[in-house]
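Milestone M4 deliverable, item 7.
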Amino acid sequence: MSQTTTKLEKYMRRVEIRKLWKGENSDISLPEMLSLSLRFMAHGMESHDYRFLNTALKLNDRLREEYSGTNQLREIEELEHHCIETLQKRLGIV
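Output delivered:
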């Protein structure tokens, strides 16, 4: 496991254990949450470890509430859509 993967794994555990996508539990800023979501989606698709994608989707739900109608939300939704389409193709669903 690479050092980057290990670091991302630690972030993912932190997000999941503390349920950081829930407003009352968040101890990271929205820009940090956005950055993690984008990194989790990219890593999940690259590594085929879809736990990262699952965590990113949870963060994205929170980010949708906070960034409604902004460029940040469009960036998230475009990458999310691409990831889901790619995953469906990989699994033979489409």
